Amino acid sequence: MGKNRLEAFSDGVIAIIITIMVLELKVPHGASLAALVELTPVFLGYVLSFVYVGIYWNNHHHMLHASARVNGKVLWANLHLLFWLSLIPFTTTWVGENVMAPLPVALYGVVLSFAAVAYYILEKCLISCNPSDHILANAVGKEYKGAVSVVLYLLAIPLAYVHVYAAYALYIICAGVWFLPDRRIEAQMRS
């Protein structure tokens, strides 16, 4: 089965996710700088979530580019990933409106951790769907960043109830780790 429809569908869903997030940015109630400054937490939450969605889009693109075909398992695994990514706008808005509340900050981590696990499942499904083509399998190798990210998300969830800013710091660190593109797939495709 070809992968073009999967790529197009995924790109469309991710574009909608980003659109929903930007539409949740409300116009300030006033024309002063102070009114704009009040929206800083909401805007920073949007930036972090935009970075996360961008990271997933970028890595998803590379992963599909390294795969020759998809099957039914891959389609369902992809939908699983898109489901968790589609919850990012909701949690982003909730955190933005309740910056210091532990539950929204913890739920943000829950969504990020499930998205990371869903991405891992998709990666494994693509590798098993393309057994004769080892580009993705060789590029991924032992995936440490993904495992470390899940651990950090799982630490941030209870940490949100102890120190909200520490949970935010873990989310920012994870985004920073993934922000730089992973060159392993590109390197495998060149060799």
Automatic annotation (TrEMBL):
- Provide the reaction this enzyme catalyses: K(+)(in) = K(+)(out)
A GO term, aspect molecular function: potassium channel activity
The superkingdom of the source organism is Bacteria
Regions that span the bilayer:
35-55, 75-96, 103-122, 150-180
Compartments reported by the entry? Membrane
How would you describe this protein's topology in the membrane? Multi-pass membrane protein
**Where does it mainly reside?**
membrane
Q: Which family does it belong to?
A: Belongs to the TMEM175 family.
UniProt KW keywords: Ion channel, Ion transport, Membrane, Potassium, Potassium channel, Potassium transport, Transmembrane, Transmembrane helix, Transport
Any one cellular-component term (Gene Ontology): membrane
What is this protein identified as?
DUF1211 domain-containing protein
